[in-house]
Amino acid sequence: MAIASTIRPCCSHLLLSQIIPKYPYHFSKSQKCPHRYEVVAQAASTAPAPHPTFDPVGAGSATPPHILLHGLKPLVFTPLLPFPEKTRNVDPVRHEPIPRTESVAEREAWKLLKQSVVNYCGKPVGTVAAADAGAFKGELLNYDQVFIRDFVPSALAFLLKGETEIVRNFLLHTLQLQSWEKTVDCYSPGQGLMPASFKVRAAPIDGNADAEEEVLDPDFGESAIGRVAPVDSGLWWIILLRAYGKITGDFSLLERVDVQTGIKLILNLCLSDGFDMFPTLLVTDGSCMIDRRMGIHGHPLEIQSLFYSALRCAKEMLTFNEGSANLIRAIKNRLSALSFHVREYYWVDLKKLNEIYRYKTEEYSQNATNKFNIYPEQIPAWLVDWIPDRGGYLIGNVQPAHMDFRFFSLGNLWAIVSSLTTPKQAEGILSLIEEKWDDLIGTMPLKISYPALESDEWRIITGSDPKNTPWSYHNGGSWPTLLWQFTLACIKMGRPDLAKRAISTAEKRLLDDNWPEYYDTPTGRFVGKQSRLYQTWTVAGFLTSKLLLEKPELASILTFEEDLELLEGCACRLSRNGRTRCSRQAARSQLLGNCA
């Protein structure tokens, strides 16, 4: 892809029509877009009433600030900052909290995280991917850039510490990059695509060869290995935007016209009509955290979990007007269909596996049990003895005549966080992780996928990728950054003991091993053969996990509970074949039973 422009410093402000042009909108090569921009306020006749100012103490206002949720009812966003320091110990004499003493690993991690901060025009805008970006065989690659997905744990660590400026700047600058014209071989991807990463670099000022200025240079995939667009970047951006709004109460940012437009562009790109018959998002290989060929093309679980979470975030944040009514309706319909689809067809436990084992094939009927024509011979030999009697998981992919039975950690964990699973399924996933601790956690949490592709399967599926050899990198490697997502899921399900156990295992090694990107071998005993050290999201993932355990109530900035309202559009209610079994009905019964 050739980027038509970069962000260039300029003190002048643009009019709203220049920042948010009419569709299709992009900036030509001759136009400059300032890094400092303000959205001009809407006309007084159409401007909504201002929100009440957030009073940290709570004494200045009777009600918390809120955002109008698609015209139906106010969504209460109770800001969580500033929050009191939660401690376990109290001074017996002064009756004051005794601050918790940070461990050596935590102090080192905070030092590294702050050193990784990237400044643009004197203000923080993100963190680099790794501090030793060019230390491995002199190859710089793109580890010196700010990645959207990599910055999320860094952003959360800063937010949980009360440092919000860097997150706000990051959200706005990446939003501005979204509108850039993107082309590769005379073809432009859809509007709304967020960059995978960006870099701050110096460029000569026009007309003055002796002077330089800072510019933001984004990468939308045109420089990536395989030239794959980052589908997950926009989804992570929406998720982080909601977390920022919930923890800070900065609703003026969420209601800005450019922010609302950015959300809509991402969703329009994801919800666009196509030939697919399923509510899941169809993507190519390498379009998410697993950014190399690993046989996840189609409908990978990781993308579906993030997609569902982003839809729920957007449903809360979109302001209701004529321009958003249809989009909000589409979001609700997609949420209902997507959750039903994943809960019904991705879930595998011992009972479901036995059902697949007895599948009849070549069923031509609307009442078919084997809807995707899955051949029982696809059940891998390793799974027969590996699946425990108690618990289960969401498989990696479901397509016609194909089920990917590998366990993918990120997709399963984020399905718990977003309530894409039923409560019973969420409990089953954590039960499976606990039962298979040595396989999925081992000596370094957490396996990105299990098991590894080996022999002919590795050669065919990865194309003999020398980086994704068995039990390395994305092919069964152990990634410490997944700790924060595991911690989040454990807190939501009331199992912080599992998170503490995993963090304790990791903390013993991360400091001594210089915070590697990933670990190799089936149990994660070796530092990855091509792993960068001082990897920022390894550092940030560890810190975020620690902060979440210290302040578990703040997990709500990312989690969702079961939304019973989505039952109204459930697919089983619309079917004509009299289907009675429904995961959402089971979830409703379970929730109501728990409340009784």
TrEMBL record:
Cited function:
Invertase that cleaves sucrose into glucose and fructose.
Q: Name one GO biological process term.
A: sucrose catabolic process
User: What EC class is this?
Assistant: hydrolase
Q: Which UniProt keywords apply?
A: Carbohydrate metabolism, Glycosidase, Hydrolase
Family annotation (InterPro entries): 6-hairpin_glycosidase_sf (IPR008928), 6hp_glycosidase-like_sf (IPR012341), Glyco_hydro_100 (IPR024746)
Q: What is the lineage of its organism?
A: Eukaryota, Viridiplantae, Streptophyta, Embryophyta, Tracheophyta
Source superkingdom: Eukaryota
Protein species of origin: Rhynchospora pubera
E.C. number, please?
A: 3.2.1.26
Q: What Pfam family is a match for this entry?
A: Glyco_hydro_100
Q: Which GO terms describe its cellular component?
A: mitochondrion
Instruction: Describe the reaction catalysed, as an equation.
Output: Hydrolysis of terminal non-reducing beta-D-fructofuranoside residues in beta-D-fructofuranosides
Task: Tell me the GO molecular function terms.
Answer: endo-alpha-N-acetylgalactosaminidase activity; sucrose alpha-glucosidase activity
Name recorded for this polypeptide: Alkaline/neutral invertase
Instruction: Family membership, please give it.
Output: Belongs to the glycosyl hydrolase 100 family.
- The keyword Hydrolase is assigned to this record: yes
